Amino acid sequence: MRPIIxxxxxxxxxxxxxxxxxxxxxxVQLKSIEVISKKPLxxxxxxxxxxxxxxxxxxxSSNTLEVLNKxxxxxxDHNGTIQxxxxxxxxxxxxxxxxxxxxxxxxxxxxxxGSTLDKIELMDAPPAKYDAGGGAVINLRLKxxxxxxxxxxxxxxxxxxxxxxxxxxxxxxxxYKKMNWFASFSYNRDxxxxxxxxNRDYFADSLSVYxxxxxxxxxxxxxxxxxxxxxxxxxxxxxFEVNAQQRPSIYTRGYTSDANNDSISKGFTYSDxxxxxxxxxxxxxxxxxxxxxxxxxxxxxxxxxxxxxxxxNNDDDFFHYRLWSDMQIFAVKADYVHPIGIExxxxxxxxxxxxxxxxxxxxxxxxxxxxxHFIYDENINAxxxxxxxxxKRWGAQAGLRVExxxxxxxxxxxxxxxxxxxxxxxxxxxxxxxLSYKLDSAxxxxxxxxxxxxxxxxxxxxxxxxxxxxxxxxxxxxxxNLRPQTNYRTELKYQYKQWLGLGLQYNWFRDIIFTMSxxxxxxxxxxxxxxxxxxxxMLLVNLNLHPAKWWDMNANIMAGKMQLHGEAFSTxxxxxxYSVRVRLYNQFDLTHGWSAEASGDYSGRNINGQEVxxxxxxxxxxxxxxxxxxxxxxxxxxxDIFRSSGQNSHSAGVKDSYYTHRGxxxxxxVGIAFTxxxxxxxxxxxxxxxxxxxxxxQERAK
Length: 702
Hints:
mainly beta
């Protein structure tokens, strides 16, 4: 704790000296007409926070998931679950959903180099335009230039922890007359290392079990992105974009269980998987005039395929899994914007998820009782309308989104199981209201309030009732009876320029989905369920400070209380905790093209269903040097300097049992990165463009 406390203490002497705008004046060198300006890490607006990724020294040598974990307000746990200010999120890329969540989304973002990111948009209270799924929205904006001529950048990096990793990308733009072509190529080499130790006590049988799981793996991700915008005339623009990604991976997972120090069981899993993604988008924009009167439309097709072959040995018993999943997504939408303050739109999405799990014994004969075929179809039809109005000091915005959801899940059945089908249809309304008031005529101080309703739908695989083997004492299964989790949120916020933001936020949840554990014959059977209602009340503080000409600081603080009320497997689940999350980010402008950064993150006690997570902290640092007239940059950084980010947790509310858990991961790394910008950057042309769609359903394919 001492290193991070020392960083926190450095904050207080500089607050008074920092009550000024964090933006720095641009320096113009008239000889070469070169404009040199530094973007701040964060930019605040009424409905979102924008993170400029290039302001992070460590971004070039990190993948996108690692960049998110260093972003103020965002947390990523060891399972890859992403949250913004304590709420689940919907992750978009260029305004389009990924249609994935959980470990699948984490693996996808690990294969996307941080050097391909331009901005990260954090929307804690998304307006009606965005899909209602997810408590908050994170939109990842990839690099795309509109400068005339041929421009681009290349980024090469490597990092070393227990294993070697590499993130590399090439981004190219060619803007000529009416056409703007853009392309990117990326290669990512990733590795995994998890060392988990769990001690379980079973009260009824006076049994103690020690579980040790060790995961190692490697993957190589190759990606390509190609697109074009074409100005038909002054009023009409058409465009397309295609993306493809392939991620072959090999993982091994070994486990040992020891019951009462006299009964040892061992198992080993070898996994050889090949994951592929393809997406295509067509978009159209019509400008009625140059005052913001627009109509946009687009259509997207996305496919994901993962073929995983697993060989398992458990106490010398051999069996084999063939896990194949195929997902097809089609989405269309249209949006209309009128400069008087009216926005409206409609969208339809269709998702088909085919998950085929085949189990074979040691003679390679399929065992139907352990095999499963699950087909999930989902159609969501949505429409929204919103209106906003500004007066001299007042501002107001209200919106209403309606979503009609139709889902069908079925298991075709085999010799061991009969065919089963479940269907669900429901329509929900999602209102949002924003009010703002300028406390002074210059608008330097703003008071705002918002309220809204959102929903967290179950991940696709959470609905699959198939029982999967994890180890001799742990099985996992899904739940086709899951209901969507409803979130209500309201916030009162004060903003002073760009340097101070204060928010009081209250979130109320109903039908909370947690993955819970029931104990049957000393076996933990984990299953997602709607087990609780509860609330999170918190104070949010964001400070952008400028203590000296050479020092910029951002402090993001979240403090509050979480309370749950519910029941899991006839056991009361009534737990609450006070917690605090503090993240400090320091940037130092040194002489002769040198700069540095140092950041720290402290996470207080947290609750996740039946698990209580203990406090932990992590420290990052980096240094960079500008080269070749600022065209190139050499960066060196270190993550988790004190290797302090491992997770310690214990159970709360598991029936007739108690466990403690310790997880260690390959988080301490040293990285080096080289970036280079090429092309003649002159005569930038301003263009309007709208988000491509498939908007926000990809968040739930687990």
